[in-house]
Each structure stands twice: as C-alpha cells, then as structure tokens.
Amino acid sequence: MLLDAPYVITVHDHILFAEGGLPGYGQAGIGGVEAVLARVENHAYYAGLDDIFGIAAMYAVAIARGHVFNDGNKRTALVCALAFLDLEGYDLPAGPEIEVQLVEIMVEVAQGKVEREDLADYLSVIYGPRESNLPA
C-alpha cells in the first residue's frame, strides 16, 4: 500500500501542530507533494523497486530532498517512511539510540550524504525480519 498526498499532508500538518514550524507548501504547492509521491510510485511500479525497505527509503529521500513544504520536510520524510513500514507490518524497535540515529541519518539524507540504498540497508538492519516471517 503506497502513501497518497492527503496522508503525507496530514502527517506534515500534525508534526507542525505538535512541534511548531512554518506551515504551507514550497513553490510547487500541493503539486510538489504529488510529484515526489509519483517518484516513489514510478520506482515501485516501473523501475522494479519491490523491496519494502527500499520503498520506505525512497519516501524518505523524495520527501526530504523534494522540499515540498516550507518547513518540516525531514520530519515528514522520516515519519512517512516509518509509517509505510508500519503499514507493511513492521514495528520500529524502541530505544533512544535508534531515535537519535534516525534523526542524524535524515539530516544526512537531506544533505545528499546518504543515498536511498544506504538508508534502505540501515532500515533493514534496525527493523530485521517481521515476526510473522520468523519460523515458529
């Protein structure tokens, strides 16, 4: 299940309501949100990106680097990537060290220092296999 623009916008608005920030969209308006989500969809449907962690990482990269909102792009990118994994049945391991690592890696994603593939690898390590996929 891929995320849609109303969902991403709602995530963004909730983040800004809870944590503060400058509301609104970047220059492209709501079309910018739709465009970055189309990038994810194109990679998932037409470029052969079928790895759950790769798709989650694509959300993070596309939203963080797309600067579709006036503020909160990295926060929205991270929450959307994690929400996608949650919708796919993955539970984020708890712990302050993971939270710190996720924040740090999102800054590096936005700066172009961490690529989608590297983020996907990191997510697969911290999440591990789904409980339902483990042998009984």
Automatic annotation (TrEMBL):
GO terms for molecular function: kinase activity. SUPFAM superfamilies: Fic-like. PROSITE patterns: FIDO (PS51459). It comes from the Bacteria. Residues 3-125 form the Fido domain. This is Putative phage death-on-curing protein. The lineage of its organism: Bacteria, Pseudomonadati, Pseudomonadota, Betaproteobacteria, Burkholderiales.
